């Protein structure tokens, strides 16, 4: 049965399902609830505690489901509410929690509220649910300010009024099909509390909040002096007009009150791209959200100094507010770690957001990804695994004609976007879609994809999948990994990170090129690569020790 401990999330391992690319149960080329239900035993055996499902709501999929047309239903491509309830019951029966995405910053332009706003007049209640403004200039033909969309181009789009005349402009931080709600409107706030209640009552265990640092805006703010709206960039100016504003915290206090009214309480996880970590800590105070993604860690380079700095900053700041850290290497918005770590520059900026012609050394990247997995899974707090990460999948170069991410078009075909980490999973060695489904897949899978499939790796003690299975088994069973403390062990070299977790657990990571001697220990619990013949730790390798 599902874990009833109220603080289960503090050390949980959560598996992220990008449902469109996970498993296709009905043969239409897209993943769905039926496919996910069939794969629940795989996730249970993997050893995770919860599943986070990316948006499955009705949507035109102009932005991968983050353009929601109906917050209380399931897109027919993925299933229906009856199937969703069956999934919840089956997952809970296996001890797995289910977390959904909530997208409160904006809706799809096909949402009934926005369609009503287009049909209404300026100043009407329908338009006040969104951010409509008159344009500048004598004929209103210029946008209200110079703010830019994070997907490229202006953050303003002009509409045609019901009488056919050029009309007002609406604000959209993201795609033009994703109009932003006006969170100063009490009707918007009440609506989302009701949406949360709907899913909580169905049995959902929590929500990951998309763009949790957005929502509240200061629409009276002046033009920005430069482009402050890059995708996955944290705001770098104080008092930003539409990111990380004080008003979001009032919203989350109300959400937390609702979550705490359930038994057991429901969970919130923030996607908040804010810096420094002290700003992020404000989202996880004890009367707001429970945890937040640790993007400082995700973006850190694969160096001893970079990793230690990210770990120390996160744990120290969050400890001050009583919240656990979370650790994440991949998600549906960033480059696969095998490809990122297979280059000279290994920070996250080298991924989707910057063009680079450097060739990827996948063998090196996979070796580092194995070491990074053991480092992440040995840290105190929660950990997130993005689907396919446990298979060591690399980033895929999707052919130009097959790219579907709106970033590609809106950037003038200069930024390829995020499709490369969203290619459907390989489950079997062969077949029309390598076991993803009975037919093809909505994004093309590369040749030989099946060699990295679940089938190919299962039972192979040297595979990435079996490394994850072993690590997650130890993570669940070892008493030291249930605690929230760690102590650095210094003196092993500039390229080495090592720490102790009591009782009797040590993690040692060698980021350098040369093997290093290990500290005294009783036994090797697990290593990301074999030790040398004389028992030293090779470069780009992590080992777990019993002391």
UniProtKB/TrEMBL annotation:
It comes from the Bacteria. CDD domains: AmyAc_OligoGlu_TS (cd11332). Residues 16-422 form the Glycosyl hydrolase family 13 catalytic domain. The keyword Glycoprotein applies. Keywords: Glycoprotein. Pfam families: Alpha-amylase (PF00128). GO terms for biological process: oligosaccharide catabolic process. Signal peptide: none annotated. Belongs to the glycosyl hydrolase 13 family. This is Alpha-glucosidase. GO terms for molecular function: alpha-amylase activity. Gene3D superfamilies: Glycosidases, Oligo-1,6-glucosidase, Domain 2. InterPro entries: GH, GH13_cat_dom, O16G_dom_2.
């Amino acid at each position: 049965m599902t874990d009833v401990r109220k603080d289960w999330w503090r050390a949980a391992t959560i598996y992220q399902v990008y449902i469109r690319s996970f498993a296709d149960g009905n043969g239409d080329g897209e993943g769905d609830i039926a496919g996910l239900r069939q794969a629940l035993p795989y996730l249970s055996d993997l050893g995770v505690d919860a599943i986070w499902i990316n948006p499955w709501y009705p949507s035109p999929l102009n932005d991968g489901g983050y353009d929601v047309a109906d917050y209380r239903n399931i897109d027919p491509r993925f299933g229906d509410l009856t199937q969703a309830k069956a999934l919840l019951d089956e997952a809970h029966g296996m001890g797995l929690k289910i977390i959904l995405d909530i997208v409160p910053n904006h809706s799809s332009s096909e949402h009934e509220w926005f369609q009503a706003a287009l049909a209404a007049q300026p100043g009407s209640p329908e338009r006040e649910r969104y951010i409509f403004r008159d344009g500048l200039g004598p004929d209103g033909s210029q946008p209200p300010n110079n703010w830019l969309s994070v997907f490229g181009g202006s953050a303003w789009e002009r509409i045609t009024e019901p009488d056919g005349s050029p009309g007002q402009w609406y604000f959209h931080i993201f795609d033009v099909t994703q109009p932003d709600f006006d969170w100063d409107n009490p009707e918007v706030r009440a609506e989302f509390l009701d949406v949360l209640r709907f899913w909580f009552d169905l049995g959902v265990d929590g929500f990951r909040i998309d763009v949790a640092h957005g929502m509240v805006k200061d629409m009276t703010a002046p033009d920005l002096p430069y482009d402050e709206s890059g995708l996955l960039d944290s705001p770098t100016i104080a008092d930003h007009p539409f990111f990380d504003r004080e008003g979001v915290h009032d919203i989350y206090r109300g959400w937390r009150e609702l979550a705490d009214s359930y038994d057991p309480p429901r969970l919130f996880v923030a996607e908040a791209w804010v810096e420094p970590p002290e700003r992020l800590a404000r989202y996880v105070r004890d009367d707001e959200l429970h945890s937040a993604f640790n993007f400082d860690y995700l973006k850190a380079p694969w160096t001893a100094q970079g990793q230690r700095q990210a770990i120390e900053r996160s744990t120290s700041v969050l400890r001050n507010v009583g919240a656990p850290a979370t650790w994440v290497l991949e998600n549906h918005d960033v480059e696969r770690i095998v490809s990122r770590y297979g280059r000279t520059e290994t920070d996250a900026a080298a991924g989707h957001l910057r063009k680079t012609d450097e060739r990827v050394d996948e063998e090196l990247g996979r070796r580092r990804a194995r070491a990074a997995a053991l480092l992440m899974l040995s840290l105190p707090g929660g950990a997130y695994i993005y689907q396919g990460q446990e298979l060591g999948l690399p980033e895929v170069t999707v052919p130009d004609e097959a790219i579907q991410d709106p970033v590609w078009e809106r950037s003038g075909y200069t930024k390829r976007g995020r499709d490369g980490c969203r290619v459907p999973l390989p489950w079997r060695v062969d077949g029309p879609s390598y076991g993803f489904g009975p037919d093809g897949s909505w994004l093309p899978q590369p040749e030989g994809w099946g060699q990295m499939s679940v089938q190919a790796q299962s039972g192979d003690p040297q595979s990435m999948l079996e490394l994850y299975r072993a690590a997650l088994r130890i993570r669940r069973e070892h008493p030291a990994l249930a605690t929230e403390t760690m102590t650095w062990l210094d003196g092993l070299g500039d390229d080495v990170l090592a720490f102790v977790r009591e009782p009797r657990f040590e993690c040692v990571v060698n980021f350098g090129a040369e093997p290093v001697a290990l500290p005294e220990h009783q036994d090797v619990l697990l290593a990301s690569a074999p030790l040398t013949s004389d028992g030293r730790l090779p470069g780009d390798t992590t080992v777990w020790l019993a002391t």
